[in-house]
Amino acid sequence: ALIEAELGEAIATGQIVPHYQIKMDVGSGRVCGVEALARWTHPTLGAISTAEFTPIAEGSGLILSLGRSILERACRDARSFPEGIGVAVNLSAIQFMRDDVVDAIEQVLRATGLPAHRLTLEVTETLMLSESERAIDTLTRLRDMGVAIALDDFGTGYSALSYLRQFPWDELKIDRSFIVEMETDARARAIVGSITAMAHELGIDVTAEGVETRGQVEALRAVGCETLQGYFLGRPVAVADLPWAMLEGV
Ligand code: G
Ligand code: G
Ligand code: MN
Ligand code: NA
Q1: Domains of the chain with bracketed CATH
Q2: 125 C-alpha vs ligand 3 centroid, how far in Å?
Q3: Which of 46, 162, 188, 189 lies 20 to 30 Å from 226, alpha-carbon distance?
Q4: What are the distances in angstroms from CA 184 to CA 146, 187, 190, 194, 216?
């Protein structure tokens, strides 16, 4: 109850800001992008879990101002990132289904001066469950603007292969639940390898999420997955703490 009451003010006063988790290119060991993840530091309660307040934001409509604030800050921060490094921002289905979503994103890009090609929007397949034609139309307009579109949490939910056929995703993010089993389960390795091969065949980049061990890095390298994200590479950190140097020995 406290959270709900304070969420609006927290958004307005900048208590909730994006932190960033790096993504690494497995071939070169270089940072190749970052994902923005909302973090709330409450003045007296300290850190409040994103998994806790995001559903409340979605249930109360505050997700619109929260989403806008995170997107704006992420685009502004990204202007100071090294050449070629873009930022990925999660877009909730509620934000996405607004009539003005394309205009709103265009406006943020204009206001912050971030070139569209340095922004990736991460969406989940829940968008496609209802009104999929409208969803595809919106995704197409965003992509035509130059924004990259990633399908997040792939492998959870229904993951109908038709989603891969219906839209030219730029990136597919394989859910952590598959990655965590890769060292011990040949079936998980086969699934991740097959998803990766299929995505590449379709011209889609693949990111493995939730990489926590060196063994997982090796297993992902072996199946040809080129981009890794997870605690093994780095936890989400404040913008000032982002490590841009090449990751040694990964
Ligand atoms: O980073 P973390 O585990 O705390 O995130 C929990 C969930 O909240 C994840 O599903 C993540 O995608 C989502 N999330 C984090 N930041 C944002 C955001 O800025 N916007 C939206 N819509 N979801 C976010
Ligand atoms: O839903 P989405 O994929 O956007 O959310 C990513 C979530 O996963 C964030 O909450 C982020 O903090 C979390 N995360 C990132 N890397 C790891 C990891 O290596 N292990 C675990 N358990 N969670 C991770
Ligand atoms: Mn995500
Ligand atoms: Na994800």
Answers
A1: 2-241 (3.20.20.450)
A2: 12
A3: 162
A4: 40, 9, 12, 17, 10
